[in-house]
């Protein structure tokens, strides 16, 4: 295990996540998700995790592997049209991951999601955490609206962002 990564995860607490995403920012992100989901039949879930627990860190779990795990834990895979999207941030690694259910992933492909991640990371690099996420969610919403137009029939995932 890389000692530098271990120390970063040890030093990054939930407080760091709450500083980057205070309550007002979470409210605005939730509102953005609600607005975006009113234009398509997809589901977007935003989760921030400060750092990995020691077990996964010791096993050298990558941010991508953790995002896939969170995708399953949050039930993002269980949307009626297989069009759920997880936007996952791992603060300690400065990582942004997008995991899409098979329906929407087949429509867009990895290049679209990588571009959205780069845009969010660029905003984060300038300290614009909320704006980066809001812009990313809007981009994800545009993709969902292209392939799944119309309002969601059922809101199957919480719109409220989660800090783990």
Automatic annotation (TrEMBL):
Transmembrane segments: none annotated. InterPro entries: TPM_dom. Residues 21-141 form the TPM domain. This is TLP18.3/Psb32/MOLO-1 phosphatase superfamily protein. It comes from Pigmentiphaga kullae. The lineage of its organism: Bacteria, Pseudomonadati, Pseudomonadota, Betaproteobacteria, Burkholderiales.
